[in-house]
Every structure is written in structure tokens, then in C-alpha cells.
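Supplementary Note 3. Input sequence used for the single-chain structure prediction.
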Amino acid sequence: MTTTAPSAHAVVPASPTDRLLTASLLAGPLLSLAADATYAVRGWSDPAGGVLHVLGAIAYGWVALRVAGWLPARSRLAAALVLTGLVGMAGNVAYGFEAIHGSLGDTPLVDQPGAAGLIKPLGLVFPLCLALVAAALLRLDRRWQGGLVLLAAVAWPVAHIADLAVPAVAINVVLVVAVGSLVWTPPVRG
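The predicted structure, written as C-alpha cells, is reproduced below.
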């Protein structure tokens, strides 16, 4: 009787978690693009834009987890990605709800004193997460994607703090191309 060992190059089917995290590479950037395009047309306090913003922010949390999973298990960068990915997701989600809240005619949290100001530092963690995603992609030899994500990370707070619709949409187009392309050309897992 002859037995054969599994091939070292055998294809391992993706787990449901892998499929979810990989799908987020398209979902996060596309939902964020749709949110900013909606804001560009209807204003920064549009409820539909806010809903898309919240959903895109959640998906971007999964993007951070996907990229962290490609790094070696003992990587400090992976740990930093998990931290900033989840905190940045919370801040980004908060700004989506801020748009929904504003659409109801309520005073924006960013204009309130005290505890409401927590939205600001949490929101700034999202572009920091993008910068760490860029660093991870560069480390994983995905240079052009890493470069584009780094550019987006720097431009993101400028466009979004100043409510500049055209640059915000352009940044999201860059992220759709850079992050979305990883669905078809993922790095080798660390």
C-alpha cells in the first residue's frame, strides 16, 4: 500500500473568517467612497451618507485585521494594526453617527465641550491606522499599494477635517484601487 504525503503547495481553502476579511478589502473602500460621494452631493450631514460612513468604517476595521493577519504572528506592527484598527474604527463610526445626528438638526458633538470631545482623538486614530496599513504593505512587498495608502493616510485628515468633498472622494478612489487590488494579489502570509 502506498501513501502519499500532502503536497507542500496544496491549496488550503479559505475559512469563512478569511473570506470575510478579504471581502472587506473591497467593502471598506467602496462603502467609504460611496459615503463621501454622497456627502459631496448632499452635504456632510446627510443621513444616507452617515449610514454608508458607519458601514464603511466597520469594514475598515476588518481591513486592519486582514492586513495584520498577513504579518508574522510575533510582529509588533500587527499588534499596532489591531489596536489602531479597532480604535480607529470606533472613531470613524462615531463620525458616521455624527452625520446622522446632524441630519436630525442636533448640535454636532465636535462642537460640544467635555466628554463629547472624545470623538476628535478617536477619529484621528483612523488615518493613523491607514499609515500603519501602509507600513505593513511596504513590509509585505506591496510597494505601490503601500505608497498609495500612505498618501491617503496623510491626506485623509486634511480633507475630512476641512470638509473638502472633492479631495475626500479622490482619496477614497485611491484607497479603492490600492486596498481593493489586494483581493487579487494578496501578500504571502507571514
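The helical segments are 16-42, 47-70, 76-103, 119-139, 143-161, 165-180. The mean pLDDT is 93.
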